[in-house]
């Protein structure tokens, strides 16, 4: 299956990254002279994605002004006068998507792919591993032992084939969630109208045995604090 659509979560306030996010939405924070969103859209374009929806709230007018005229991929916006959280924010914008699986990516996700001769790009690997009959959510997880610039948290453990993937409440897993995944829209069935976290849907998929994962083979960085941002900025040429 070719995944040709994506949703980028771009509405958050990025409070832990202040003061940078007081005047700039976190997805527009620059790495290597370009906003994080630019890097994400480049990955999606290379993966064959033709339609991308984004939800907007905090300083969302900056994001809309920067990308409203981008021809490829097509960019659609879902404005949130009141912040809906990650789960309801996607549900609120499902009408912008085709009724088919899509990439769901955090607006601050910054990653690089492994060398072409060693492995396919991360989004292609996710698409190749996606099995809609057996999965509702497929996660890309970063091995903690490969995180050097920013601190990681052991969000998940998984079997080598990714068939059993479970969240570690005490953060004692071997992998951190990258904020990059494939989602089937059926996971939103019977979800509430009020704001809720997408993490609830990940837990639901785990309980039903329909949460799977693959490890990321490139670099990914958890940009949470100003220190994280500066560390990544200084080393960008080393992992690009």
CATH class: Alpha Beta
Q: Into which percent range does the helicity of residues fall?
A: 10-25%
Q: What would you call the shape? A: globular
Structural class, please?
alpha/beta
Number of domains: 1
Using the 3D structure, state the CATH architecture.
Alpha-Beta Complex
Spell out the CATH superfamily.
Spore Coat Polysaccharide Biosynthesis Protein SpsA, Chain A
Sum this structure up briefly.
This protein has 240 residues and is α/β, with parallel strands linked by helices. The protein has 6 helices and 13 strands.
Record keyword descriptors for this entry.
240 residues, alpha/beta, Spore Coat Polysaccharide Biosynthesis Protein SpsA, Chain A, seven-stranded mixed sheet, two-stranded antiparallel sheet, 25% strand
Task: Give a description of the structure.
24% of the residues lie in helices and 25% in strands. With 240 residues, it is α/β, with parallel strands linked by helices. The protein has one domain (5-239): Spore Coat Polysaccharide Biosynthesis Protein SpsA, Chain A (Alpha-Beta Complex), CATH 3.90.550.10. Strands 5-4-1-6-11-8-12 form a seven-stranded mixed β-sheet, with helices on both faces. The protein has a two-stranded antiparallel sheet with strand order 2-3. The protein is globular, with a radius of gyration of 17 Å. The two termini are 28 Å apart. The mean pLDDT is 91.
